[in-house]
Design brief:
Elements: H1 2-11, E1 13-18, E2 22-26, E3 29-33, E4 38-42, H2 43-51, E5 55-57, H3 62-76, H4 88-96, H5 101-128, H6 133-136, H7 141-169
Antiparallel strand pairs: 1-4, 1-5, 2-3
Helix pairs in contact: 3-5, 5-7
């Protein structure tokens, strides 16, 4: 599921600033840009142009977004969860690939702190309520899968424990 969403994320449009004029026609896909121009294009194309110094990706600063997400998560309390973009972790991990070792370690530490905090909250919430649309809109792709797994296992565990009691009370 995560792979499908990663591919889907790369198909989303992103803004790029063109560094040098270019024109491409690959497999019927025509792409062109003039130096200084800001254009929208699929992220995977923008990444190729960026790697070849033809354009610069105007992607959000994921480290700043991570710091904000961590701060919000701390503020909402123990039984509430803040909203994250469905592809938050996918985008964050992609941006972390560009960091030097020291910065990578610091960002990874913050990411793990956010992850652990949200995981703990999700376990508590999933144990008590079924996923609803409000909560679903706050979760990332990975968290959504985790939540459903925890909830299903919790319901099954309770069924195993209460199973004989329910049969007994109906006699």
């Amino acid at each position: 599921m995560k792979k499908v969403h990663s591919v889907g994320h790369r198909l989303n449009d992103t803004k790029v600033t063109v560094n040098r004029d270019f024109k491409f026609n690959v497999a019927g896909i025509k792409t062109e840009g003039t130096s200084g121009e800001v254009i929208n294009m699929p992220q995977w194309i923008g990444k190729i142009l960026s790697e070849n110094n033809l354009a610069t990706l105007n992607s959000p600063d994921m480290v700043t977004e991570l710091k904000q997400a961590l701060s919000k998560e701390k503020m909402v309390g123990e039984y509430q969860i803040s909203t994250l973009d469905p592809h938050f972790y996918i985008k964050l991990k992609e941006s972390m690939k560009q960091l030097n070792r020291d910065d990578f370690d610091k960002v990874e530490s913050m990411m793990l702190e956010l992850f652990r905090m949200r995981r703990g909250k999700l376990v508590k919430i999933a144990d008590s309520i079924k996923l609803n649309s409000e909560l679903n809109n706050k979760l990332t792709v990975e968290e959504n899968i985790f939540y459903k797994t925890i909830h299903e296992n919790s319901v099954e565990f309770e069924r195993q424990i209460r199973g004989d009691l329910n049969e007994q009370s109906s006699n």
